Amino acid sequence: MDPGKDKEGVPQPSGPPARKKFVIPLDEDEVPPGVAKPLFRSTQSLPTVDTSAQAASQTYAEYAISQPPGGAGATCPTGSEPLAGETPNQALKPGAKSNSIIVSPRQRGNPVLKFVRNVPWEFGDVIPDYVLGQSTCALFLSLRYHNLHPDYIHGRLQSLGKNFALRVLLVQVDVKDPQQALKELAKMCILADCTLILAWSPEEAGRYLETYKAYEQKPADLLMEKLEQDFVSRVTECLTTVKSVNKTDSQTLLTTFG
Questions:
Q1: How many CA atoms lie within 13 A of 95 on its CB side?
Q2: Is the pLDDT of residue 245 over 60?
Q3: pLDDT greater than 50 at residue 53
Q4: Does residue 119 sit in the same domain as residue 200?
Q5: pTM above 0.90?
């Protein structure tokens, strides 16, 4: 066999084999045809990812972490349910006007509602038990329930904060010996700047709620003392400021000494 030929008789080139030339493109976008695609692609050539589809598969925890804490634009994803511990949005904020008493759903089934007849009322998502006006609210407490759960009213008063100027604690006395419990509640209301009102029946408690709502826009003239303008009445009022002088004595003094 001729050493210069292969098995099929094709002549082999003499001398060392020729080296292959490789062309490296300077621009990664200019890839010559017929060359294998590179293993790594530039981020500039990647297709844009649909952010809406990514946000849809994102959990609420991941969303909360990705948002700036307490930022102005941090909002809850659309359609997500409120987590445990979150308070739902209130239907009536302090300062908003309403012609009816806004009742919290936790008061559903309370016998007091049967006796609120002279003013309209409706259920609403509010923090107090009853919203009686723009700056007035009320919490209802049964002494029987208070004896079983003494810490309940503390948490309710703390949840009100300073959102309402007038905060009423309407207590229904439905136990035989209420003295000790009422003493503790009175001290608590003084410290919490809250008005304590006692009712001995659901009907009486309902009348208090009606009265607060009915007199929401009334001036304080009905509660103020009316001063007579005539001379005799004003002198009588002046003389009766002395403890030992009554109206009869003042009339006698006026008759005697003019």
A1: 2
A2: yes
A3: no
A4: yes
A5: no
